[in-house]
Amino acid sequence: MANEVIQNKDRAWDIASVQLLDKAEKDGISSAFTRREGQKGQGGFGKSGVCCKICHMGPCRITPKAPRGVCGANADTIVARNFLREVAGGTAAHSDHGRHLVLKLRSVAEGKGGDYVIKDEAAVRRGARAYGVPEEGRPVNEVAIDLCKIFIEEFSSQEETLATLKLAPEKQQKRWKNLGVEPFGIDRMVVESMHRTTMGVDHDYKNLLLHAFRTALADGWGGSRVASLVSDILFGTPNPVRSEVNLGILGKDTVNILVHGHEPALSEMLAVAAMDPEIKALAKAAGATDITLAGICCTANEVLMRHGIPVAGNFLQQELAVVTGAVEMLIVDVQCCMPSLPEIAAAYHTEIVSTTDMAKTVGAHHQAFDEHDALASAKGLIKRAIETYKRRDPAKVLIPDAKRPLVAGFSVEAIKYMLGGSFRASFRPLNDAIISGRIKGVVGIVGCNNPKQKLDAYMNILTRELIKADILVLKTGCAAIASAKEGMLTPEMALEAAGPGLKEICEAVGIPPVLHLGSCVDNSRILEAASEIIFEGGLGDDLAGLPAVGVAPEWMSEKAIAIGCYFVASGTDVILGNPFYTSGSENVSNFLAEETKNLFGASFYTEEDPLKAAELIHQLLDAKREKLGINKKSERKLLDMKDRRAHGV
């Protein structure tokens, strides 16, 4: 077993990735998949969470013979501290994304936004009503400035709880208040997390873990929720769009430019610049037929949702995109961008360009994006890519014949419109379908890819099992891209793969059985949708009572830990495809898996087999339906006018 050769077909689900893994081997290129093999001896102390490096009396490792570190900390304290620090890291990443967008919106509203404008006035006014900002009869920029004041307070507030918490169902708010986990400002929560975990401060594992959930709530109901709302204001609220996905979208004779990371400001302007007639003429003068702009990872989802720009791939395909030999430029900003990219690009003609001063990469060309002259900055990058096209070596090019159509862009506003139309936009039809049993429940599948697992396999197997069983699936981030590559993001797939109840709803409404809600920061849209179900009525008054489950099948990032915590704290059970680093403390593990049920009405489960995960989801949904008294399938009933009035339709 130690010398077993792993085949590339066992590393990835889709044919494009397999072909390029084969090419990488022939070209002598290492990838995350092969480097993972070199890390087979990953430390057991780290994986169990009992290695402590917080002070320099250590590092300390807890064992049966040495049950306490130098300072006296035991496994419970050390594991809980490490867990809280991971949550703080994930919260900081997603929320800092939100902060950048808020500051950009403020500049735009003050008339200092350069090439940026407010694209969605309705989103401004919708946000103003949600936060209690007067908007009727006022100029949109004036309203936006007042909104920004509230949003900035979400980061800096020292003693006031987040205003965004009031967007949750009332019973949820009371639960958080009673537990003492209502977060203050995001920045304070992250700083307090680091303070609590410093040597000699908080040693009570339960106290540490409760603050982990509090900090995560600052992300899910603070930074991430604000980020999605401000993105809608600046760039437009997503509506359904058609596009294509996978590495086959690269053009054989086009200048291929990929954007990768998480900040949408640059990618939005690149989308505009790539359509400029002058830029297109330059590409043709260089011998190309056109420009292909596409995305990797969550930036891909941002420009897909709003422009229909194709998606080249998800997280573990970023290196493989370079291995095609057909990419002129890979533009990166923050989060999930591998430091290996420049080394791989050196074997081809591809140029890696970093664009954010807080995220430089050794070997990359650094060209800070000038947001004050954004369009010119974007055009400059494309012109550089056009020059790079002239150096492409056809002998090194392999573009897989693999791409699929997709439909994305399902914001909560878009879903409401599709369910009820312009005048009766509502979640009522979805609620009725769940109550009648035509849809058994809703599952959110989120998260990254991880080379510990076969790329996309868990996500795709689980998704097929769920839609076959009449379960509506909501997806974000790399999980959504996995479904897109499998062809599951088209309405037509409902006819082929969905169960009869889900199929009926999808046919009637015209939606896929798997809804792409956006990037990983848009997980807040899943919570928004769940809240809309509660507000619509008929399915309880608490998110913990909804027949809904979250799954992170192939997660790898600290952001995923924060996401999981804010879902559980919001009353939604979360299934992990691989475990947390907490096994070294039975008490911490028990708190996350059992005690949270009494606190939040939800908990964490770990299941590494997608088929067993599907069985577990059925059990969890059945239990919720049983508690609501709807765990039976009712016959379809035509309502007369009296019935319709009783339902408010």
Structural class: alpha/beta
**What are the segments in which pLDDT stays under 50 over at least 5 consecutive residues?**
none
- Helix percent band: 40-55%
Rg:
24 Å
Number of helices: 26
Number of strands: 16
Strand order of the largest sheet: 6-5-4-7-8-9
What distance separates the N and C termini? Answer: 63 Å
Give the overall silhouette: globular
Overall pLDDT metric? 93
For the report, how would you describe the main beta sheet? 6 strands, parallel
In percent terms, what proportion of residues is strand? 5-15%
Structure characterization notes:
The protein is of the alpha/beta class and 649 residues long. It contains 26 helices and 16 strands. The chain has a 6-stranded parallel sheet with strand order 6-5-4-7-8-9. A 6-stranded parallel sheet has the order 13-12-11-14-15-16, with helices on both faces. The protein is globular, with a radius of gyration of 24 Å. The relative contact order is 0.12. The mean pLDDT is 93.
Brief summary:
This protein has about 650 residues and is α/β, with parallel strands linked by helices.
